[in-house]
# Entry
Amino acid sequence: MTMLAEIDVETATVIAPPKPTSLESTGLSPDTIASIIVKMLHSGEDNGMGLSDRLCLPYGILEPLLEKLRVEQLVEVKRALGTGSAGYRYAITDAGRDRALRFFEACGYVGPAPVPVHQYTAHMADLRAQTFEVSRERVARGFSHLIVEPEMLDQLGPAVASRRAVFLYGAPGNGKSVMGEGIGRVLGGDVYIPHAIDVDGQIITMYDPVTHLARVTDDEGSVIRSENAIDRRWIRVARPVITVGGELTLEMLDLRYSELSAFYEAPVHLKANGGVLVVDDFGRQRVPARDLLNRWIVPLESRVDYLNLVTGRKFQVPFDVMVIFATNLEPRSLADEAFLRRIPYKILAKNPTRMQFEQIFEMNCRRHGLTFDRSIVQYLHDKYYTGRKLDMRACHPRDLTDQIVHLCRYHQRTPELTTDLLDSVCQSYFLEDTQTGMTAAR
# Structure
């Protein structure tokens, strides 16, 4: 599973969850917060403000809970610094250590206080209700880093505006996988996601530094509330654009419970909520395509999903993610009519035209600092694509220029674009048919 690189986007207004002002407004039970405090102190002493920062809750909410833990003799004050209890240095007692071990057996989560699932659902409804114009100009800007024909942009634009699922199909190497990045740029903006959510005392981690790009919040000018009023249990991230490939399994679409840590990790589509999920090389997963499609057939239409806890409790979560199925297989071989009906946008990624191929080649030459020469592209076209009856693919310019640079570095020479170097890399890039001697694209 990969996260696409940070991209410069046109941002929309960021909807920030409001800061809780009381224990009741957190939506959590006192016992849930108290158990995390005790587990935090099990690893060492901390002061009141330190616990507040780690739990991402105002100290005013924690103060009565800490006092209650003191009365129960689970924690004690080692020393006081400054004025007020926020400067007290808290430590766990022997009784507290025994209680912490029981808490760890029930749930090993230690971190920012979770957000109740009903608060998460309400926030996602606010995000879904946010509207902004998806114009041809906005779509063109979103895909400006790629060479895409206007006709295809006009097909992608309505799909992005609807935020419904898309089937991208066609020959391999024509940029289907990176279309998700363009769609993420068109959607633009940042979103807030909770570090973790709470369902009946069970904790599910949501924020994943591998798949989410956290934003530095020094400049919150576009946030509709001031930074001091934001619920710090949520983290601001770039709109999620997550790609999964052949590693995708049915288990990744459900909660993953760890027997060792005794808490859950959110499934990949829940992590991608509010953004884009690209299922790359669809049909080549270790699980049959029809099983994956059947798992999502209801969420794609109803926009909600149902997850199960190990206790047997089933609960509802939003399915507010734009799913991109990218495949080089025939769509009808992967899905029946009932499922294809639920994917309203089916877009063919065609081979590039000669002009588009030149543009892509020139763009990749600039990326490597190579001097672009149309005569070299003409040579490539005549000798390989026409001479050996190969189809041009959008990925070929990137791959061939990459190999030229690597070859030059190997020979300790300045990278340049020549017919000799091009022939050398084509020899290792294209496959020779051992039966007929014909060359085929890799």
Q: What stands out?
A: Residues 116 and 310 are 18 Å apart (CA to CA). DSSP finds 17 helices and 20 strands in the chain. Residues 1-11, 218-227, 434-439 have pLDDT under 50 and may be disordered. Residues 354-368 form the longest helix (15 residues).
